[in-house]
Amino acid sequence: MTKDEIIALLEGKDDAGLFERAAAQRLETFGEEIYLRGIVEFSSYCRCQCNYCGLRGPNNQIHRYRLSVAEILDAVDELAALGLPTVVLQGGEDPHFDVATMGRIVQTVKKRHKIAVTLSLGERGLEAFSHWRDCGADRYLLKMETMNPALYPNFRPGCDFDQRLASVRSLQALGYEAGSGIITGLPGMTLETLADDILAVTELGLDMISAGPFVPHQQTPFGGESGGDPQVALRTMAILRLLNPNANIPATSALETVKKEGRKQGIEAGANVLMFSVTPETVRKNYAIYPGKNQETNTAAQTVDNARNLIQGMGLKPSISLGGSKVGQQVK
Ligand code: SAM
Ligand code: SF4
């Protein structure tokens, strides 16, 4: 697909055809299976200052929490007992969970359960990435947010574009199933920069690609900006599916926040992964990345039931497989 063709699709030139082709590609690669991932958001402390995120360090208006190691392991036990094949351990960039502590958590989970472990803990350095991989971590999610080096500093002050890209590449080199991705509709992005982002993120050859709309958070420097158009986010996912037929692509929670039935539409646009929070109810709503995030008061069991019902209601199958990467395999 050329950049001009991508821009035309992002403008909405052929929504019906685009979504139909993306869903057909998902079906061809993954059959009727949709992978399930439960996320345990174990720390809302963060040392970074991302201008879009409510968890940014300088935001002193939110309630911060950290789960204890025992609480994290309990949440994973519960998720495994519900038959979920993957846990995502996610948090702000919080050095309180040092390299050794995170390593022990990963080792314990892998010893107790036959499930895949995804980490999403920000840029913690090569030594940490390597140790956690040795401890058994299977996947790592580190979104670039944009592939545009000129826009990057506006979004993530104090962070370095090249450094983050190098981190994504080192995760790949360490043998993780590596995930990255973009936020759509951040201030200053245009359909042209988005088309460039789509092409550049595709170049990375990722196992997992996430694209979700920007949702403004009042207590951030971007609080007064417009949110990302959910329809553009859906088109982005569909184009990514066509360009990356074998990659895992999630229907993001940000999409559900800004659009009724957003996740369902995400699957219709080619996503093959559903991720949902199974963070303990006592703290879940305090993982306040953006307004509307984690407002459900369901138990983990209800959340998993709802996800399975959503998938079955679409005539698809909630997968019980680990949902490993098909990247590198030949397209069927
Ligand atoms: N701290 C780690 C990191 O940034 O890689 C992982 C946790 S971070 C909360 C997970 C993702 O949330 C980010 O990669 C970003 O894409 C997304 N996010 C944060 N704020 C957002 C917002 N206001 N709208 C949409 N997505 C947002
Ligand atoms: Fe921290 Fe991640 Fe939020 Fe940035 S996006 S402020 S690194 S939690």
Structure in words:
- The two termini are 20 Å apart.
- The chain has a single domain, classed as Aldolase class I (TIM Barrel), CATH 3.20.20.70.
- The protein has helices spanning 3-10, 15-30, 69-81, 99-112, 126-134, 152-155, 161-173, 191-203, 230-243, 253-258, 262-268, 281-284, 300-313; strands spanning 33-43, 86-91, 116-120, 139-141, 177-184, 208-213, 250-251, 273-277, 317-318.
- It contains 13 helices and nine strands.
- The mean pLDDT is 95.
- With 332 residues, the protein is of the alpha/beta class.
- Strands 1, 2, 3, 4, 5, 6, 7, 8 and 9 form a nine-stranded parallel sheet that branches.
- Helices cover 41% and strands 14% of the residues.
- S-adenosylmethionine binds at residues 52-53, 55, 90, 92-93, 120, 122, 142-143, 145, 183, 212, 214-215, 217, 254, 289-290.
- Residues 32-246 form the Radical SAM core domain.
- InterPro entries: Aldolase_TIM, BATS_dom, Elp3/MiaA/NifB-like_rSAM, FeFe-hyd_HydE_rSAM, HydE/PylB-like, rSAM, rSAM_sf.
- Keywords: 4Fe-4S, Iron, Iron-sulfur, Metal-binding, S-adenosyl-L-methionine.
- Its cofactor is [2Fe-2S] cluster; [4Fe-4S] cluster.
- It comes from Desulfoluna limicola.
